[in-house]
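Quick log. Single chain, no ligands specified.
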Amino acid sequence: PYRTAVLTGPPRSGKSLLARWFAESGRGEAVDDAQTMDETALFHRWNRAQEQGTALLIVGGEPPWEITLPD
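-> predicted structure:
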């Protein structure tokens, strides 16, 4: 129901290429290197996508990610 997917994996495995294709094909919005983004900014991107009904692909390096936001 959230229309959001998280794609992780090792470097040079095609994650950024897939994210670029996803966004350019008009399927939704993609956030690449999400693990390096400010958590609050990423949370706002997620909220905006939910409000607009836009699919969101969040791409990052291998887990685990340190997420400190209480939400």
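The longest strand covers residues 4-8.
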